[in-house]
């Protein structure tokens, strides 16, 4: 039996607890079917990692491995694989119902894997998959925005929480699609970040949104992408959305939303969860492969920037705990990556 290094948990504990994340050794898996076995070169840490690891009364019999952003090299392919071969450099976000990528080797279905952007190193590439998939699906699949700038002339998009990982990608994609982009941020440095990534305007999400939009000359916005505290902003989103406009959120709510607020405007609300396709094995699962390849093309052509703001090394429990603690502050801008 060949073993590999990994970082896992058996109990769900505060991040400052010594056993919150642990260095462990697990059996090295083998590729079967449509799976790739990837030698992990770099990972990034997302709020979903922190959410899943957060304290709860549950234990795991064997260590659970987190991590849903990987860049690496294909080591081995299953017998049904057609999209990749050993030696290919890849990047992906994986599946929420399978072990994560915080390990030396990782199994992933080829249909949710893209070729790594050739102009980026592994750490820069690892910052992109989860946020790019979420932003792309949110804008183009859920909100139904066209990628053709001429279709979007005069249309506006409000991104609530625009300085985070998803917001930084969504801002770039929306600006490239010709929309007027208004991003929210709460501090001068995050407001500047939002503008640097292509937003036309930055407003503060800790103050009422509608008066700030009105100051910009906007009675309504055509689209809203909510990346922060859906219930806190819900009434304002309902007020700000244009008649027949569309709202998409990625943040679940503790209480049901009052959808009746959207009725008179015939407005649409949808959720975006980038793990839906892989979790349910949807017939269009391969769209994430195509999407990630398109993102790689955009990056290599200079049309999309990676969002790394902090690099840590090496990949082990100590550095992962540091990354989780930073994300728990709620004040991170861009992405934290770990390599080596």
TrEMBL record:
Molecular function (GO) terms for this protein are: oxidoreductase activity; zinc ion binding
Specify whether NADP is a keyword of the entry: yes
Q: Which UniProt keywords apply?
A: Metal-binding, NADP, Oxidoreductase, Zinc
Identify the residues that the record assigns to the Enoyl reductase (ER) domain, covering every copy.
16-338
Per the similarity annotation, which family is this?
A: Belongs to the zinc-containing alcohol dehydrogenase family. Quinone oxidoreductase subfamily.
The organism named in the record is: Cohnella thailandensis
Name-wise, this protein is: Zinc-type alcohol dehydrogenase-like protein
Keyword NADP assigned? yes
- Write down the PANTHER family for this protein, in alphabetical order: QUINONE OXIDOREDUCTASE
Q: Which SMART domains match?
A: PKS_ER (SM00829)
